[in-house]
Amino acid sequence: MKIIIIGAGQVGATLAENLASEDNDITVIDTDLARLRELQDRLDIQTVEGSGSHPDVLEQAGCNDADMLIAVSNQDETNMVACQVAHTLFKTPTKIGRIRSSAYAKYPELFSDQALPMDVRISPEKEVTKHLSRLIRYPGALQVMEFAEGRVQLVVVKAEKGGALIDQPISFLKEHMPSIQTRIAAIYRDGKSISPDGNTYIRANDEVFFLTAQRDVLDVMSELRPLDVPYRRIIIAGGGNIGERLAQSLEKEYRVKIIERDPERCRYLSETLDNTIVLNGDASRQELLLEENIESTDVFCALTNNDEANIMSSMLAKVLGVRTVMTIINNPAYVDIVQEGMIDIAISPQQTTISSLLSYIRRGDVVNVHSMRKGAAEALEAVAHGDYRSSKVVGRSIANLNLPEGATIGAIVRQDDMIVATSELVIQAEDHVIIFVTNKKQIPAVEQLFQVGLSFF
């Protein structure tokens, strides 16, 4: 595809890196020439210096024959005008825009073809909030991803001694929990992928990816590690967009406190939030954390815009006795370093946002994509269309599909039921098929499987 990306910040740069590695024709627009040069030195892409909302800049970038425009600059207004210009002057088929302000997001009619045409609106803040909320609801999970409108979940946990499945073959899971539909889709051991089957043994410290219905997540987790006590007390460091959204999503079920340095922002939060305690102060001050009983707090979420401040306040909270630390880190170079130390879960807003974008870029009817392991692996939800003649998957058993190496079908969702994939399972039209791909280079082959032949039309 020919794709124009507006904005060479953290989100735009990560997106360009992911898409350029898949043989797409990528052009990045930004006003910062130094940033563009750094990107061009690393990636096989084109760059154009200028404002992405200006018609002449878009024309120079090749918007007249682009398949897609993705406007992810830090300015909502630039993104909106860029989509408007691309629609009016260049008839760009797909326009995706980043909208950060909830003031705009409240009015979806703003983004119709008659107003400011935007086919897809994305909000990194909203995606990160959903990601954090799921982690808080499942203590001990490293990542929780939803498929089929939340009916099926792909959960990542680190196996620990005390779980019933440790040092047992995977087939033991079915014997031990015969009434629960679940499938272990992948295992990473010492950083390397293992394709699991019934005879694969689970070892302590394995990173295990399993699929199951939402209602059964905790039961399956208990087979892999001792279940943690549910979280109750949450402290959020940083009352920006993400901190505010997270508090709103949690305050009815949990005891939530926000620590924010800006007095004006504190006033706004105290008026906006219903059941959240708002504190004016610095989350890296030991005295403040001790006053707020950090040692009896379940989760400390560091959500400011400053990586260094997030890391330092998180490490201090951990030393003072908080149970779990979750930290937003924008600089990819920091993520691996801190996750090996005191910080339990490091969250990259860029990778979280990439997942929400990829489903619009994948070919075939791909309705959900989750990027994992820093973009090296993906889990996709693809809808099977057509019939035996026009489709490469419909009417065929999983054993007879030409799946590329490193791709595994974990489950299908048929109407409202999740069915664990077996070699004999036959895929039917309109099944939602959940595929785990450990080698991203195989994504095009998976996409081709779910594309319908001309005879279907």
Automatic annotation (TrEMBL):
<dbReference type="InterPro" id="IPR006037">
    <property type="entry name" value="RCK_C"/>
</dbReference>
<protein>
    <recommendedName>
        <fullName>Trk system potassium uptake protein TrkA</fullName>
    </recommendedName>
</protein>
<dbReference type="InterPro" id="IPR003148">
    <property type="entry name" value="RCK_N"/>
</dbReference>
<dbReference type="Pfam" id="PF02254">
    <property type="entry name" value="TrkA_N"/>
</dbReference>
<feature type="domain" description="RCK C-terminal">
    <location>
        <begin position="142"/>
        <end position="227"/>
    </location>
</feature>
<feature type="domain" description="RCK N-terminal">
    <location>
        <begin position="1"/>
        <end position="124"/>
    </location>
</feature>
<keyword id="KW-0633">Potassium transport</keyword>
<dbReference type="InterPro" id="IPR006036">
    <property type="entry name" value="K_uptake_TrkA"/>
</dbReference>
<keyword id="KW-0813">Transport</keyword>
<keyword id="KW-0630">Potassium</keyword>
<dbReference type="Pfam" id="PF02080">
    <property type="entry name" value="TrkA_C"/>
</dbReference>
<dbReference type="InterPro" id="IPR050721">
    <property type="entry name" value="Trk_Ktr_HKT_K-transport"/>
</dbReference>
<dbReference type="InterPro" id="IPR036721">
    <property type="entry name" value="RCK_C_sf"/>
</dbReference>
<keyword id="KW-0520">NAD</keyword>
<keyword id="KW-0406">Ion transport</keyword>
<dbReference type="InterPro" id="IPR036291">
    <property type="entry name" value="NAD(P)-bd_dom_sf"/>
</dbReference>
<dbReference type="GO" id="GO:0015079">
    <property type="term" value="F:potassium ion transmembrane transporter activity"/>
</dbReference>
<dbReference type="GO" id="GO:0005886">
    <property type="term" value="C:plasma membrane"/>
</dbReference>
<feature type="domain" description="RCK N-terminal">
    <location>
        <begin position="231"/>
        <end position="347"/>
    </location>
</feature>
<feature type="domain" description="RCK C-terminal">
    <location>
        <begin position="367"/>
        <end position="452"/>
    </location>
</feature>
